[in-house]
Design goal:
heterodimer, A: 454 residues, alpha/beta, 2 domains, four-stranded parallel β-sheet, 11 strands, B: alpha+beta, 5 helices, 29% strand
Chain lengths: 454, 140
């Protein structure tokens, strides 16, 4: 079975893109090509990790969300806010204050996603008891899940079949609001997302029919509005008087907390390159005796999300402080945690599973084995014509990628500037034709003087 | 020559830091084919174990992978000490790996049994003092 649902959040604005190819060079899955003067994403390969977003000098790459503008005014609107959002502000603003500022942005209620982590901890124990094949890979980071689908098809069976905390939080809210007499269709739950991948997870969930979340709003947009409100608060911040979740739950989205809650030996790996390096090893059967892998595409976990406006290390520090504060509250309350979500624990257990995750065919040359073999032979032959130092002047990130594109009918051998010279020497290509090829890739006028373009 | 493709990779003996690169490269190629994830996993493991055997025991070797429409045919030939007793070598837990190699986490005596388990046909021949030839086939 194959997964062919390629909805993406990461988009390129052709009006802003100058085809500088920075994005193409950093893409971990070689999903970007330059054509017609600007970058284009191949949907079957993109995993929405957002590495391209980070390097774009033109800010031409954006994360498409549903946006605040799509909030239905007549509905009861709930914002699901991840703890890293609170980490974007200095410690003098209490979590309660930050959340109330988010509410004033245009919501009727605000719910901190990490409250659902208390449930996740219990769910992990339950999953471990079912004796799954080891190691189990966390399903928390949607970019990692998609990376495995595209690049590590043989590991899709290792992905934990559990919903993410924001889904659990949304399920809880739907249940509890229905109990209060609110019609399900009158409820709009929006997730304030720290990254593009989470938007995709809400829009095109893997292993779920439909996400319990109605939409996403980029954290940057909420930050801009909420910080104005927050900095306008005159009175010192109100504080919570009890712990509404277990203290270390606030750090779940960072690196290193999640793994502690799966029994046995676990590793926490963050950063796209590190994740890739480890998955390579794992796929070869090189790693043994590990029970659980916590993986985050971003360095420092969600604190390093592409839509987090603040510094990731400051955000981590802030959340550590918050954990200590919650611990104090918990201790003062005789060790009690008052998390209303946990009253629904039983019912949530029945709803928290997802279907198996299937590979995507982003790397596939051809469904048919024989045709694929012929294509691979052609690729190997083509590669002997290319210089092999991946200059990117053909609009593909590497010589191998150009060869692949050629056999798939997406490029031609004359796209290689070195092959062009050879062809010119042999009178197979005129300088004018070579010029046309370059303009086809890099855009009209690209070979004119550069002064105006810098 | 049509409908098949041969890939060759050289393996350096005792270079543990580079170990796994040959099988990793082959694995990358195989992902471009419509091979089921489970089968891909089996091939990947067999390739890796075969490569590690050369790294751990031999001076140098060559891994050649022949991709055909219905099977993957792998031959790993090495120059090295060879295997004295092939039957014994196939036993689970038997290993002639040195203490140093074991300390690095290899030499548990599971390599050859693992290759056998993950392949459909396997032949192992060796001339002691000269080298070893391992051949295995995984049907697609």
């Amino acid at each position: 079975m194959k997964d062919r649902n390629y909805t993406h959040s990461i988009q390129i604005d052709p009006d802003r893109c100058t085809g500088c190819s920075h994005c193409m060079r950093v893409c971990s899955t070689q999903a970007i090509r330059i054509m017609g003067g600007y970058a284009r994403i191949q949907p079957e390969r993109c995993v929405d990790c957002g590495e391209c977003f980070r390097v774009c000098p033109q800010r031409a790459i954006y994360a498409k969300d549903d946006g605040l503008g799509t909030l239905p005014p007549e509905n009861y609107k709930i914002a699901l806010v991840p703890s890293v959002f609170i980490g974007q502000f200095p410690s003098e603003y209490s979590a309660t204050q930050v959340l109330s500022a988010v509410k004033q942005v245009g919501f009727d209620e605000v719910f901190e996603v990490e409250q659902a982590v208390d449930f996740m901890k219990e769910a992990y124990q339950a999953v471990a008891q079912q004796n799954p094949s080891h190691p189990l890979i966390s399903s928390y980071c949607p970019a990692v899940v998609r990376l495995i689908q595209v690049q590590y098809p043989s590991l899709t069976g290792q992905i934990m079949r559990l919903k993410a905390p924001h889904d659990i939080a949304a399920l809880y809210l739907r249940r509890s609001k229905e109990k209060e007499g609110l019609y399900p269709e009158k409820l709009s739950i929006y997730y304030v997302t720290p990254c593009a991948a989470k938007t995709v997870a809400a829009r095109a969930p893997v292993g779920e029919e439909k996400s319990p979340i109605n939409g996403t709003v980029n954290m940057t947009a909420v930050y801009n509005k909420a910080s104005k409100i927050l900095y306008g608060f005159k009175k010192p911040g109100l504080h919570k008087t009890f712990a509404n979740m277990r203290p270390d739950s606030v750090n779940w989205s960072l690196s290193g907390t999640e793994k502690k809650y799966f029994p046995g030996r676990g590793l926490a790996i963050d950063g796209m390159d590190n994740v890739i390096e480890f998955l390579e090893k794992l796929e070869s059967g090189h790693v043994s005796d590990i029970d659980f892998l916590e993986m985050r595409a971003c360095d420092q976990g969600c604190a390093g999300g592409i839509l987090c406006p603040g510094n990731r290390f400051l955000a981590v520090e802030r959340l550590e402080h918050r954990q200590k504060r919650l611990q104090k509250l918990k201790d003062a309350d005789n060790g009690r945690v008052r998390n209303p979500l946990m009253e629904y624990e039983k019912i949530l257990h029945t709803m928290s599973g997802v279907d198996p995750v299937y590979p995507r065919d982003g790397l596939l040359l051809d469904e048919d084995m024989e045709k694929a073999l012929i294509k691979l032979q052609r690729i190997e032959r083509l590669r002997t014509y290319f210089p092999g130092f991946d200059c990117g002047a053909c609009g593909a990130p590497g010589c191998r990628n150009l060869a692949e594109d050629i056999v798939q009918g997406k490029a031609s051998i004359s796209h290689c500037v070195f092959v062009q010279r050879v062809m010119e020497k042999n009178y197979k290509l005129s300088p004018d034709q070579a010029f046309v090829v370059i303009e086809k890739i890099w855009g009209k006028g690209r070979l004119d003087k550069y002064v105006d373009k810098v | 020559m049509k409908d098949q493709l041969k890939i060759e990779h050289h393996i350096e003996g005792s270079n543990f830091s580079a170990a796994g690169s040959a099988s990793s490269e082959v694995k990358k190629t195989l992902k471009q084919f419509n091979i089921s994830p489970l089968l891909l996993r089996r091939i990947a493991i067999a390739l890796y174990e075969a490569e590690m055997n050369v790294v751990a025991h031999a001076c140098r070797g060559v891994m050649s992978v022949d991709i055909q429409p219905f099977c993957i045919h792998v031959v790993v030939e090495d120059e090295g000490p060879g295997i004295e007793d092939i039957e014994k070598a196939m036993e689970e837990g038997f290993s002639t790996a040195t203490e140093e190699v074991r300390q690095m986490g290899f030499g548990a005596g599971m390599g050859l049994p693992n290759i056998k388990k993950n392949s459909d046909e396997m032949t192992l021949t060796s001339i002691p003092g000269v080298g070893t030839r391992l051949e295995f086939i995984v049907n697609i």
